[in-house]
């Protein structure tokens, strides 16, 4: 491999699904990556899986960053010592299971190992950073960096600070994520559900109500997104979509404001989301009737990831055209 500049060490804590993806992204940007897991065999299987994935990405011309698959893999190694992964790391990405007690424990351990510069990021999907970083010596260096699965093809990262996170850490985390080819968004303060899940749950609630009120089939509701809104949302946000549907935002309100309020006033209460609710059983029955029962899901995930890969490729090509 051509000599790469040593950018320093990134520690990955937890080598499951998300830890593996992060390792590949950081190595693609030229960081030395140390993977730690409490289960030794997880580290060895993660290394094997990462090597295979990098080779496959290279073959399909989707490998990001410099150095080729072999060069990038040579930057990644495993350890059974938390200290080896964390001491003097530029950046640490915690990827342990979603459990508050565990996050508190791991952040406490990391707090004792890091120096005053290390960025301490958590992959948590929905735990507020203040819940597991309060009172730590290095609390101002802690931040949530929430990825979307699979992070290699869905580049958004939600950067959510605790009330005590320093502005410098937010900016440095943003810079490193951008360097990795991700698209970070920065929260001004923490909020339940971050943004991805706040928006996602709004949609899920309304989908559930449309089935409950027997307005549409599950298949047709999903078509509304897959063949309607989703086409625009693959490239534009909700806000710009509205902007382009009128002559500016005030004009959107002149044209559609009353309708938005009238329709919004017809939404029902938040569903209870209990597994034995009649509507939940009905949704499952409808999925099974179109061959999307539990046993069919692994194959469908492969189908999904192929499409996400193709979309990621298309978006990269179009973005390159935008730059030209
Ligand atoms: N899977 C997703 O779709 C997804 C998406 C975004 C964010 N996340 C978040 O990422 C985090 C990890 O999720 P995942 O899906 O990769 O989980 P996972 O179960 O696949 O992997 C977790 C890994 O952490 C290891 N681990 C457990 N305790 C540990 C400890 N004390 N120290 C070090 N390693 C430890 C486990 O052995 C396992 O290898 C969670 O907070 C999750 O909410 C997951």
- CATH class of the largest domain, anyone? Alpha Beta
CATH topology of the largest domain: Rossmann fold
- Count of alpha/pi helices: 13
Per CATH, the superfamily of the largest domain is: NAD(P)-binding Rossmann-like Domain
Tell me the strand percentage band.
5-15%
Structural class: alpha/beta
Q: Can you tell me the number of structural domains?
A: 2
Number of strands: 8
Q: Taking strands numbered 1, 2, ... along the chain, how are they ordered across the largest sheet?
A: 3-2-1-4-5-6-7-8
CATH architecture of the largest domain: 3-Layer(aba) Sandwich
User: How confident is the prediction overall: mean pLDDT?
Assistant: 95
Secondary-structure element pattern, one letter each: EHEHHEHEHEHEEHEHHHHHH
Poorly predicted regions are none
What ligands can be seen in this structure? nicotinamide-adenine-dinucleotide
The termini sit apart by: 29 Å
Give a short summary of the structure.
With 324 residues, the protein is an alpha/beta fold. The chain contains 13 helices and eight strands. Strands 3-2-1-4-5-6-7-8 form an eight-stranded mixed sheet, sandwiched between helices.
Defining key terms:
Rossmann fold, alpha/beta, binds nicotinamide-adenine-dinucleotide, 8 strands, 324 residues, eight-stranded mixed β-sheet
Note down, in words, how this protein is organized.
The chain has helices at residues 17-28, 40-59, 68-74, 82-86, 100-111, 130-133, 167-179, 196-212, 218-233, 238-244, 249-264, 278-289, 297-323, and strands spanning 9-13, 32-36, 76-79, 91-94, 119-122, 142-147, 156-161, 183-186. It has 324 residues and is of the alpha/beta class. It has 2 domains: 9-186, NAD(P)-binding Rossmann-like Domain (Rossmann fold); 196-290, N-(1-d-carboxylethyl)-l-norvaline Dehydrogenase, domain 2 (Orthogonal Bundle), CATH 1.10.1040.10. It has an 8-stranded mixed beta sheet, with helices on both faces. Strand 6 (142-147) and strand 7 form a beta hairpin. Helix 1 packs across helix 2 (40-59). The mean pLDDT is 95. Bound molecules: nicotinamide-adenine-dinucleotide (NAD). Nicotinamide-adenine-dinucleotide binds at residues 13-19, 36-39, 42, 95-98, 102, 106, 123-125, 146-147, 149.
